[in-house]
Amino acid sequence: MSDAEILARIREIFKENFDIDPSRVTPEAHLFAELDLDSIDAVDLAIKLQEMTGRRIKPEEFKSVRTVGDVIAAVQSLLATQA
């Protein structure tokens, strides 16, 4: 899955679950400062990413995620472990 495909899926998740306009979801966007996610939203996002990838996200790996670009990288990492 390419970064562009992952970004498109992430935009869908943000629109459906957090009512965030997809145009605001860019790789540079900060999850907490710009997109107004809180810690509960971060847990929800991790669950959605697990559903998307079929892989469990380790909490310590997700703690370093700050931007949408970090989320894309985390998804790529999860997908790479499937291969």
Overview of the molecule:
This protein is mostly helical and 83 residues long. Helices cover 58% and strands 0% of the residues. The chain has 4 helices and no strands.
Describe the structure in brief:
The chain has 83 residues and is mainly alpha-helical. The chain contains four helices and no strands.
Task: State the main characteristics.
mainly alpha, Non-ribosomal Peptide Synthetase Peptidyl Carrier Protein, Chain A, 4 helices, phosphopantetheine, acyl carrier activity, ACP, fatty acid biosynthesis, cytoplasm
Q: What share of residues is helical?
A: 55-70%
Report the mean per-residue pLDDT as an integer.
Answer: 92
Shape: globular
Q: Give me the CATH superfamily.
A: ACP-like
Q: List how many beta strands DSSP finds.
A: 0
Main location: cytoplasm
Function: Carrier of the growing fatty acid chain in fatty acid biosynthesis.
Keywords: Cytoplasm, Fatty acid biosynthesis, Fatty acid metabolism, Lipid biosynthesis, Lipid metabolism, Phosphopantetheine, Phosphoprotein
Family: Belongs to the acyl carrier protein (ACP) family.
Please specify the SSE layout and strand pairing.
Elements: H1 3-18, H2 39-53, H3 59-62, H4 68-80
